[in-house]
Design a protein that fits this description.
alpha+beta; L-fuculose-1-phosphate Aldolase; 8 helices; 38% helix
Length: 248
Amino acid sequence: MNDRSSEPPPPSGGHVASAIIDDLVAANRILADQGVLDGYGHVSVRHDRDPNRYLMSRSLAPELVTAADIMEYDLDSNPVDLRGRAMFIERFIHGEIYKVRPDVTAVVHNHSPSVIPFGVSGQPLRPLYHMSAFLGGGVPVFEIRQAGGMTDMLIRNPALGQALARTLGDRPVALMRGHGAVVVGPSIPLAVFRAVYTEVNARLQGQAMALGGQVIYLEPDEARQAEASVGGTIGRPWELWKRKAMAK
């Protein structure tokens, strides 16, 4: 479990812009408000001054996260200043993805309910409307048995985090069989947007499949064009979701 209890903690990446902390707190609240996170799940952001550090809440229900709960980690997921605070067991998801994806600034791990069936049924999650066009490149499924044999399904060490990062590859979303999903993005608002609309797409796809008949999905060119078009409007839902979630 990467025990460093007898070693000095890693150095801090330095002062973090208050706007980064505010957005990280908001991301936790938004994803809880939108039904993507509940008492479980977590969100992280890469340090704005040091790409070899990331920020994430102490182990806490996302809806309860405040700025005082944010902790700093190195990419081996060792805390800079533990101070007796509980850490998320699956923090290795975040550190290992940041190591291999320099384009990623934010990571979301969730147990999004509508997504779970697509990780266990062999039915691929595919974009069926323009808001989920980012799924157009395909959504891989991580099988933890192949990486660690029989486990408790949790990413509780670096090796499992590395295996998950390999499954994710260069995609924005990967499902975790019998567990949930990991969603990444070049910014907190975009990672949150993708997490929300992955859940919405999964719900709509399940409804469409239940109707019977052929489901018409976005073609690759449609997905590329729609993703580019919607990508310029991310600030609109972000500001709405943020105001709503932070007002509670």
